[in-house]
Amino acid sequence: MFIRWSAAVAAAILLSSPALHGAKAADKPTDPQIAHIAYTAGVIDINAAKQAQKKAKNKDVKAFAEDMLRDHEAVNKQALALVKKLNVTPEDNDTSKALSKQASDKLAELDKLSGPAFDKAYVANEVAYHKAVNSALETQLIPSASNAELKSLLQTGLKIFQGHQQHAEHVAAELK
């Protein structure tokens, strides 16, 4: 089930990829769309972390959720400051809408779990989610960004989120 969800997230993120459709460079996401997708991805992980803070029982899972909340809130604050500085309005798009819908469904699914079942499911989801987001950053969002400051923020975020993926993988291995 978690693999299916991560595949859906990856598909939603990559569906607009020009490389998948042989589209022209003009069809790649715009900087306002990229900003919205990246911000939405951060909000999704913030909401998942808040849920985990309430429901997790394992101390390592709780600590991981605290890290996710802190780091994603910090990156999103930087993103908001950047779009304000650049006078850019993030643009909602099909990818960010699909991500939000899928995340809402996943939170509802996780909310039905408790104890070790929740802990394992939350961490497995975090591994899959970070893999999908990191892949989208590397293959679509960073290459498509035209503004140097936006590209730099996305590259910084990628480094942080790669660390999150490794951390989630470590916590997941400890839960088995």
Weakly predicted, low-confidence segments: 1-25
Shape: elongated
Main beta sheet: strand number and arrangement?
none
- Overall pLDDT, averaged? 87
- Give the helix proportion (percent range): over 70%
Distance between the termini: 17 Å
Kindly provide the radius of gyration, computed on alpha-carbon positions and rounded to a whole number of angstroms.
16 Å
Specify the number of helices. Answer: 7
Strand composition percent:
under 5%
Number of strands: 0
Order of helices and strands: HHHHHHH
Structural class per helix/strand content?
A: mainly alpha
What does it look like?
It is a single chain. By secondary structure, this protein is an all-alpha fold. It is built from 7 helices and no strands. The N terminus is likely disordered.
Can you give keywords for this protein?
single chain; 176 residues; mainly alpha; 7 helices
